[in-house]
Amino acid sequence: MLQTATDLRTLPIRASNDLNVDVIGAGVAGTWQALMLAKAGCRVTVYERDTAALTTATSHVAGGMLAPWCEAESSEPVIVRLGVRALDLWREELPDVPFNGSLVVAHPRDRADFERFARLTDHHRRLDADGVNDLEPSLDGRFREALFFPDEGHVEPRRVLPQLHARLTAMGVTIRFETERTDSVADLTIDCRGLAARDIAPDLRGVKGEMILVETDEVHLSRPVRFLHPRWPLYVIPRDNNRFMIGATSIESEDRGVSVRSALELLSAAYAVHPAFGEARIIEVNAGLRPAFPDNLPRIDVRNDTIAVNGLYRHGFLLAPALAELTAAYVARGEIDNEVMRCS
Fewer beta carbons within 10 angstroms: which end of the chain, N or C? Predict the structure, then answer.
């Protein structure tokens, strides 16, 4: 009989405060792994082949939405479970993370999509036009109704990762940027290489996500706005300095370019949210490849002295803290979460 996710079994393992741990990868997954293991008492070294700016990492172009209940519309329940737990971990580690909620909107012609989204998700409340205006005055008169998810949040990846890296350094963790790990005497290796880990996980694939960063002082938003679209929900995420990230494409391709079609759809969606985006200045057009397994679910593979954490798909910032907590629980107490962990 298969155990449920809440049924844990104990495996013998060395005390965590007696372990030297190497973490490969300083993106959001590796950073949170290093953080939780350092808190558990491990002596941690992080290896990252990119520079400290991580411009080639998937994290660099991520949306950073912490929206587990919105994700329920198209994701398995385990994503919601882990995502809800991760919200608390983000709050504990970075109390300044904005938890202003998420707003989901649609035009009347897409009412069926709106109702479907409402039916498949929870922890939201319906707003009429006045309610939308109260939350986001810039959207006054733009939408007749919306779904408001008050407990969700968002982070700006390019800001929070340096903050977390600084925290690691303050805890005594060594981060070696522009360094490939070669020979190691570590007791345990945490492999967070993403797509580069296909040598041990050949079923990984890259799923392209495209984004456009724009700047305008004519729109002011306090939270991510998801605009339901016939092909996919697109989002507009507020950043600092009057900037907004527009994204949410999910394309089965490992080409890192941004297509004209995607760019037009992203910009058209932003214009549909607010016409002032039509005059916004384009700052950046970019794309990243998210590592995904065939089932689009995350996986923690325990293999002797290596633990591989991968397959976070488009939920990297949402799931990374909770997955790191599971790894730390295994290292410290031998606990196994059977929904995401495999032992071989």
Answer: N
